[in-house]
Amino acid sequence: MNRLPIVLAAVSLAVFVGACDKAERWHSPFEGTPGATSQTKPSGPAAPAPITVDPARFAAFGAVPARMDDAAHPTSAAKVALGKTLYFDTRLSKNHDLSCNSCHDLARYGVDLEKTSSGHKGQRGTRNSPTVFFAAGHFVQFWDGRAADVEAQALGPVRNPVEMAMESDKAVVEVLSSMKEYEAAFKAAFPDDKKPVSFTNMGIAIGAFERTLVTGPSKWDRFVAGDGKALDDVEKQGFNLFYETGCISCHNGPYFGGNSYRKLGDKKPWPDQADLGRFAVTKIEADKQFFKVPSLRNVAKTGPWFHDGSVATLEDAVTKMASFQLGKELTPADAKAIVRFLETLTGTLPTIAPPVLPKSTDKTPKPSAK
Ligand code: HEC
Ligand code: HEC
Q1: In whole angstroms, how far apart are CA 167 and each of 85, 122, 175?
Q2: Pure H helices in 211-298
Q3: Contact of 135 with 210, CB cutoff 8 Å
Q4: I need a labelling partner for 112 at 20 to 30 A (CA). Which of 5, 90, 274, 303 fits?
Q5: In terms of residue numbers, what domain contains 186?
Q6: 370 residues of the chain, pLDDT tens digit each
């Protein structure tokens, strides 16, 4: 407990005062002295004391929403349906071989499992593809936050020469207007627009679809909802270590991240300085090596890890975080326990059936491998 940063101690104390009588309504394992966590390691001959988690600690996180709607981006069933079709349509790429789903496979927790993604003509970018599940809930998009929201973000990859490589916004509109079904779907999604088929509206529709991309309850969610048996002792101990080591000073909120920029290598310089993160966007010296703190929801399914995909195991990722972000060296057993906890953040994957795409017509531009 003495390792807890002062601010967090104050927060949990404040919450704890209010949570006293609530704690009494919780069943095992929250019975016993709130605030006390067992220091017992599950080794040695004596039966280890049960590991408890102080429910006051839940306050730093909170539940994820059922979908990430936002009043500034009014949604509709027509927008979501159109966005889903666009998300899977490879004709939004120059060679008709890449869709959003190629690098953010919804059947694989929204990632491609590659170090860095393979785009147009197999070109590799420099960054690892983050998951689209829960991305819409983040405060900004991309590792460096250069897009404000998913609606703006969706326009990037379509025009990025190492991703989908479309030559102009106009070329995209040409593809979309070549099919009657798209004309009708854009009209239904944007009934008040004079020109419903537009590059911007494509982004808005894809964004509306992304705002529905959530995974179902994880073990952690069930635990927080009162199912004390949802986590085993090592997972509970892993959470306590995650909390007490100070991971929560950056990975907090419903997504365990996605709500701030922080320096990668806060306590000592990160070995790879090739990518300066936020600095590339702002050109402010103090932003060098700052990246968006990623969400840890489903993190066990989204390796390899970090902006450059440089770390191949979650245990290594956790050990490096403690060392570079917090100046603390974890024992292998503690790192493993934190990994076991992180695995409890894996939610159930929704079944998203790929849509039936409109058929190309004579007017649809042909693929180009150039
Ligand atoms: C060739 C692979 C590739 C394709 C195709 C692709 N992306 Fe990405 N996506 C990436 C990579 C790599 C990043 C991280 C880039 C960065 O941060 O600079 C990213 C970032 C994102 C993010 C930000 C998530 C976060 O946590 O910040 C979202 C959302 C996203 N992509 C959605 C899409 C959508 C929608 C499409 C289709 C229009 C798409 N992507 C097409 C590789 C791809
Ligand atoms: C000072 C802020 C800070 C602290 C403290 C911190 N992290 Fe991070 N974490 C980050 C940032 C920033 C990144 C993204 C780094 C990058 O650019 O690749 C990150 C990335 C990660 C990743 C990789 C996620 C992915 O999708 O690639 C994991 C796993 C992780 N952190 C776990 C932890 C754990 C466990 C702790 C505690 C031992 C911790 N972090 C402490 C800021 C922090």
Answers
A1: 21, 17, 12
A2: 219-224, 233-245, 279-282
A3: yes
A4: 274
A5: 77-210
A6: 344 444 444 444 333 333 333 333 333 333 334 444 445 555 666 777 889 999 999 999 989 999 999 999 999 999 999 999 999 999 999 999 999 999 999 999 999 999 999 999 999 999 999 999 999 999 999 999 999 999 999 999 999 999 999 999 999 999 999 999 999 999 999 999 999 999 999 999 999 999 999 999 999 999 999 999 999 999 999 999 999 999 999 999 999 999 999 999 999 999 999 999 999 999 999 999 999 999 999 999 999 999 999 999 999 999 999 999 999 999 999 999 999 999 999 999 999 999 999 999 999 999 999 8
Using CB distances shorter than 6 Å, the residues near ligand 1 are: 98, 100, 102-104, 117, 119, 125, 127, 129-130, 132, 135, 138, 141-144, 150, 153-154, 157-158, 163-164, 206
Considering the domain architecture, whether residues 193 and 108 belong to the same structural domain is answered as yes
351 within a domain of the structure (yes/no):
no
Asked whether the beta carbons of 146 and 281 are under 8 A apart, the reply is: yes
Query: What distance in angstroms lies between residue 111's CA and the mean position of ligand 2's atoms?
Result: 18
Residue 311 belongs to a domain with what CATH number? 1.10.760.10
In the block, which residue shows the tokens 């008040």? 192
DSSP bridge partners of 290: 263, 277
Handedness of CA 145, 309, 340, 240 (dihedral sign): negative
- 111 SS3 class: strand
CA of 319 to the centre of ligand 2 (A): 10
Q: Are residues 86 and 206 in the same domain?
A: yes
Task: Kindly identify the ligand whose nearest atom is closest to the C-alpha of 343.
Answer: 2
Ligand nearest to the CA of 161: 1
Which of 133, 268, 325, 339 maximizes ligand 2 atoms within 8 Å of its Cβ, making it the mutation to test the pocket? 325
Tell me: do 194 and 292 sit in the same domain.
Answer: no
Which residues are registered as beta bridge partners of 141?
147
- The reply to whether 195 and 302 lie within a common domain is no
